[in-house]
């Protein structure tokens, strides 16, 4: 059982201020994405690449006041076989400083950038699976060391959401994350909905994955909802957390002794469809989970049909 209670919070987006206004006491933590607080015009004239959205930055600062603040990124594409984007990393460090300092910073263990012809850093459009071998470990490890030097805060990597199984792998994703943690390179951000996405699309069982993962590596979890599209289940962040994901969370999350935050993700374009009232109820469920993490008692059977059946 966890000895300290993790904070409950949100991945920040333009709808976050309205949701916080409905339940300010339920939001203890905010994860800000630097990628969403600027426009990246790509390499060019020095100093002119990133155009910050100053009003949005001030809004994040206002809502982070009195709350735990972490950073969450997607732009570094750490497993890609391309050099570290040093200009991007420096911009993240400056954003952290301007916002008062990230207590930890998370990135994705997925490939978003790939070399393509004359284009050195072409966007793949979605997170691609990673080959978990020694070569990839060295690529990711060297970039993590550089990130730690520049950002000066703890780091964690998030498991991916995939739409087809990867056959004949020698090292599984949890084994790869365990090695990163064991060698002191980073911790794990466990997105339980991503595990559910992979399982719905023919991948490994989430329970098997979490049994293999080192529970001491996990410092943050993500919850979210998705939908079906063209025969696939999508990590669209379009709804509430599915009951199956809640059950997994209540079964496994109290084992994460170093857990610092429970984070819900939703796309702002779905905010009115989900409704603020339903999201406030989601936050209340998250607080029940956080409370369970902080007590020294067996996990009780949880029946999660109310408010999530639809």
Q: What does the average pLDDT come to?
A: 89
Cα-to-Cα separation, first versus last residue:
31 Å
Helix and strand string, N-terminal first?
A: EHEEEHEHEEEHEHEHHEEEHEHH
Strand content: 15-25%
What's the helical proportion of residues?
Answer: 25-40%
Would you mind describing this structure in some detail?
It is a single chain. This protein has 310 residues and is of the alpha/beta class. The protein has one domain (7-293): Divalent-metal-dependent TIM barrel enzymes (TIM Barrel, Alpha-Beta Barrel), CATH 3.20.20.150. The chain contains ten helices and 14 strands. The strands form four sheets. It has an eight-stranded parallel beta barrel, surrounded by five helices. Strands 3-4 form a two-stranded antiparallel sheet. Helix 1 links the parallel strand 1 (7-11) and strand 2 (29-32). Mean pLDDT is 89; it is low at 297-310.
């Amino acid at each position: 059982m966890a000895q300290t209670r993790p904070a409950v919070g949100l991945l920040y987006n333009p709808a976050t201020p309205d949701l916080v206004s409905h339940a300010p006491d339920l939001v203890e933590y905010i994860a800000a994405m630097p990628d969403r607080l600027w426009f990246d015009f790509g390499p060019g004239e020095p100093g002119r690449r990133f155009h910050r959205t100053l009003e949005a930055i001030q809004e994040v600062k206002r809502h982070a006041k009195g709350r735990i603040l972490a950073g969450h990124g997607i732009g570094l594409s750490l497993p890609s076989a391309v050099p570290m984007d040093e200009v991007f990393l420096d911009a993240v460090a400056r954003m952290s400083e301007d916002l008062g300092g990230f207590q930890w910073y998370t990135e994705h263990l997925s490939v978003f950038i790939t070399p393509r012809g004359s284009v050195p850093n072409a966007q793949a459009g979605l997170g691609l699976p990673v080959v978990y071998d020694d070569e990839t470990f060295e690529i990711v490890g060297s970039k993590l060391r550089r990130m730690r030097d520049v950002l000066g805060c703890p780091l964690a990597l998030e498991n991916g959401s995939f739409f087809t199984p990867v056959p004949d792998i020698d090292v599984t994703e949890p084994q790869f994350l365990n090695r990163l943690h064991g060698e002191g390179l980073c911790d794990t951000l466990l997105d339980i909905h991503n595990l559910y996405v992979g399982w719905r699309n023919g991948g490994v069982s989430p329970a098997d994955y979490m049994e293999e993962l080192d529970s001491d590596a996990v410092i943050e979890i993500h919850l979210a909802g998705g939908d079906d599209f063209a025969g696939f289940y999508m990590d669209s962040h379009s709804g509430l957390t599915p009951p199956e994901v809640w059950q997994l969370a209540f079964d496994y999350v109290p084992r994460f002794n170093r857990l610092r935050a429970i984070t819900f993700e939703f796309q702002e374009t779905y905010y009115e469809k989900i409704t603020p009232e339903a999201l406030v109820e989601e936050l209340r469920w998250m607080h029940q989970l956080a409370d369970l993490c902080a007590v020294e008692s067996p996990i009780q059977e949880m029946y999660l049909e109310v408010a999530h059946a639809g």
